[in-house]
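Predict the assembly for these four chains.
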Amino acid sequence: MTAKVAILGASGYTGAELVRLLATHQGIEIAALSADRKAGMAMADVFPFLRHLDLPKLQKIDEIDFSGIDLCFCALPHATTQQVVAALPRTLKIVDLSADFRLRDPAEYERWYGQPHTAIDLQKEAVYGLTEFYRDEIRAARLVAGTGCNAATGQYALRPLISKGCIDLDDILIDLKAGVSGAGRSLKENLLHAELSGGTHSYSAGGKHRHLGEFDQEFSALAGRPVRVRFTPHLLPMNRGILATVYVRGNPAEVHETLATAYRDEVFLKVLPFGALPSTRDIAGSNFCHIGVIGDRVPGHATVIAVLDNLTKGSSGQAIQNANLMLGLPETEGLMLAPVFP
Amino acid sequence: MTAKVAILGASGYTGAELVRLLATHQGIEIAALSADRKAGMAMADVFPFLRHLDLPKLQKIDEIDFSGIDLCFCALPHATTQQVVAALPRTLKIVDLSADFRLRDPAEYERWYGQPHTAIDLQKEAVYGLTEFYRDEIRAARLVAGTGCNAATGQYALRPLISKGCIDLDDILIDLKAGVSGAGRSLKENLLHAELSGGTHSYSAGGKHRHLGEFDQEFSALAGRPVRVRFTPHLLPMNRGILATVYVRGNPAEVHETLATAYRDEVFLKVLPFGALPSTRDIAGSNFCHIGVIGDRVPGHATVIAVLDNLTKGSSGQAIQNANLMLGLPETEGLMLAPVFP
Amino acid sequence: MTAKVAILGASGYTGAELVRLLATHQGIEIAALSADRKAGMAMADVFPFLRHLDLPKLQKIDEIDFSGIDLCFCALPHATTQQVVAALPRTLKIVDLSADFRLRDPAEYERWYGQPHTAIDLQKEAVYGLTEFYRDEIRAARLVAGTGCNAATGQYALRPLISKGCIDLDDILIDLKAGVSGAGRSLKENLLHAELSGGTHSYSAGGKHRHLGEFDQEFSALAGRPVRVRFTPHLLPMNRGILATVYVRGNPAEVHETLATAYRDEVFLKVLPFGALPSTRDIAGSNFCHIGVIGDRVPGHATVIAVLDNLTKGSSGQAIQNANLMLGLPETEGLMLAPVFP
Amino acid sequence: MTAKVAILGASGYTGAELVRLLATHQGIEIAALSADRKAGMAMADVFPFLRHLDLPKLQKIDEIDFSGIDLCFCALPHATTQQVVAALPRTLKIVDLSADFRLRDPAEYERWYGQPHTAIDLQKEAVYGLTEFYRDEIRAARLVAGTGCNAATGQYALRPLISKGCIDLDDILIDLKAGVSGAGRSLKENLLHAELSGGTHSYSAGGKHRHLGEFDQEFSALAGRPVRVRFTPHLLPMNRGILATVYVRGNPAEVHETLATAYRDEVFLKVLPFGALPSTRDIAGSNFCHIGVIGDRVPGHATVIAVLDNLTKGSSGQAIQNANLMLGLPETEGLMLAPVFP
């Protein structure tokens, strides 16, 4: 017996990635797809790469009959999301991919997203969706808030180190390199091929990137005291993938051992042998995250490098992993696709 | 019950693509991997993107115990291949991805590949591996010769038209645009990122490309008389994908109708509505082939555009499709992965 | 003594390319820059790569004082252009980069651009800007209409062959591969890096591309009778460069000899040795056009391949070459920059 | 009157870049080109993008007549270089682009390059080629050692800060992103387009990159005590450009002011307004270096981001800048080419 799901916001990249992954999922069937501005269109006309699938037409959200639907993936912009989710039937399980329910503190939400939250009850109810660290809560949750893709990458590199207390909490630096699909299907000059290809630049540097809200919330909770990392994202001329170079003070061997132990039984989190350096090419299109650790020539410093695919493990793959838990399906169902190389 | 296979030449791109696709195949298990120069290494050290899989170590071919192996994928260079295959046990089914058994006429082989064939009996025995057109023979075959990736693309665009006789056989032109993975993992200056990215050029123009041997053989057999197409390949700054723009004389509507009818029941061959133009982005990483037809403003001319992924439908996906038939498995098993976009 | 120029439409790619090339031009000084929506901004804020130059601020067109300006480059969208140019002082020399004055026949303009021309007198006055073929007229012209970038590429490959009558005028096919900067700074989904990189597709196939208007006009005039080429453009994941693969019926050696002779004294048009195949990488960023000729294995067919940089020789470089002639400066001034490779 | 130069090692990327830049240089003429393995070939056959230039044939070094040559650019691999330079006439001025004469301490050379230096006298004689900081010495030098491209980028970001003492010398971190042309024309699998495009990875992390030898030498000399920076390079899917994200402890406004003051009169070094973030796209193909400074949300931390083109300002452009000084030519001659965008 398969579960029935709806995907709201199916005309964006994370929506399309959900469909791509569900195409070979044995336990989930797509029962409805929404895209307000493209309602009435076939999904194959919006994303011709999905032409081989037999999919429902795109609808407006309020045209969807949610009876018979078990779970709803919500891949809408933030702010819009909280209004939409508040209006959905309470019987529906929801995996949200937006930023709207990631931050538990309404003040923090307002600070990072520039407007008050309008669905504070839902915000409180939501479980943070970093699967490997919230498994039990996610299994029992009605509403799961998918993490930011950068936030996931940094947390995979750092959470076990902060929990164990083996690094200096006041000197953590994340220099992150991100592919462009993380910016979504936005029509901006700097996302044009002519402008983006062949070069790189940093953006939201100096502590302005919104995913810092998630780092602050999660790392502080783990440490039991405020933790404020430094974080500089860079945009790279590639479509998929995030590489986070995370600089910490600590014993490199202990850092490596801590991560290797923490993730020993995790199917999707692979800690490389000490000194091996991961590449985004090795996880593109998949739900895997590779993590490498190396010591610096300057004693007492270690570098942790984590890579994942922002659209998969950083977003839609994570969402399905969480949905699997919520629906009582095997956690890895539909997610064992190998990366695509070259 | 799963079939056991060996992959010879697992350190090249087509070998790695076989492993990628077999990773989620329900009916085939990889029992042995060979790579002579990298024997003794783990596959994950040669291709870290396959790190999550539990794979046999790379061996030399003569170290492999072929008892218990049902089928062997052979992804070796041409010339080497005929020697290796001749030495394999006759009880083994073989899907070859090289050029060695594609041409039935030894003189043609020598003409296009510059040396005499040394295993002429095998050459005669081999079945040409363009699945949709040789299904019955492939089901019964011991040795199947995978097609060239460019040759497959051109044939999908043209075979039904030649069979039906609805185009001028003396005025067929294939202008082909190919991604670089088709050139394999060869260390050549012009394949370096610094030299290839950002530009394009044609190569083997004017009738020199070896895949013309396949076009000549197959089209002439279909037509019952010699057919000699013109063929200009171009190398593009992209990794996967072939787009063949095929110019024919004929009635555009009839051309479209002929292709649509011929492929009506084919899972992997999708003929777009008349006038729609396919993109390689929509098939990358998958076993699908999209075909578009448009008429020219100059009456009596039609353009057929076919796209496929050279590593998948053009090579390793095709090989698995053939292996499925040879092993009595469902033809599409392991091959329904959606394309990866963006 | 240097000439003073204004550049209208300086916030687009061809405007920026004009500034790039004029930066090291010894005979021309930029006196005014316009960009209506960005008026008031510094050019360095619109195009930070021009930061090192001391440039006038962007203005609205009607704020520019044209007294003292010798020549005006007009890099505005078509339709807008004819209105703007009609309002400029008649004493001003004008090099237009838009499509508005390329077609001499108002009916043809309306047919290809979908609206009546509103400045028919100017249209008649304009000289077609393919420098090597209209040198004398350009020297004497007040208004020069720059060619389409695809139109330039195809004409460099074909004009001498048509003039000499050494090819079949009824069987000319141009399969063209174009980089994305030719589409301008337009905000369209299919021009995003995430969508364009890594793949290719054709567009405006079958006789719909507007540059066909130029081919028809020019080739028919040369031949003294209607000539209708077939033309299929493809968009490639590269920023600069056009490669036109032109298929003709004729004697390959004669085709080569005809082009080599015609361009013997041309600084910017380089005919390669017979059989050599050009690459867009070898002309990127420069005003050079490389042309190769090869014979086909099917007798009586030749392939001519021409490459140029759409922003330079196909547009802004051509414009400066024409401006040099109009201003009595050496034709190559400012245009001898070597291509940029890798 | 023009100076005559030879370029040894003209078949690599830095050699070709020298030729590209000298093509429009008014004071230097190329009198000889060497490339041992390609001796006898025309430069246009090795680098067709230089086809329009009238260049001497490639020779073996010992075939070159150095009489009449004023200056020699040496673009050979390290180790080979010291032997070649030792054998050149003492009357010849030399600008070396290799690593052989960058490190003044023979022990450091041996440590970083794995073999003893064989021309220690030349090593002592050589002046370090970071033009803006060694101008007087370079003017008077016979032998100038061009800097590493990464080393140049990091130094432009840091030297004034170290000199002034406004940052913590024990907490300097350079996270660097480099385009692939810096790896040269080497035939390595990971430099193939199929492997490099679309992804990123770090290399020589943890203190292993050879350019650390230069950082150590130069920063320690400036500080008057040992300085050991941390340095993690990453390879990006782009051909030209380096972006160094440099993390320092210090007052961000003071950091910005110090750099802006130091480079106020430098033509090629542009400090952006405080908070502005540079992009490699804005300097590609040029001799310019853009530097941005931003403060972190964590007080007391500043981030300096410097970008330059590794082949130009990081190597061949720098070499010509130095040659201009050595030959008594204007320092900027031939180097004012605008970047190429898009």
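The interface with chain B takes residues 13, 180-181, 183, 185, 187-189, 191-194, 196-198, 237, 239 of chain D (CB under 8 Å). Residues 149-164 of chain D form the longest helix (16 residues).
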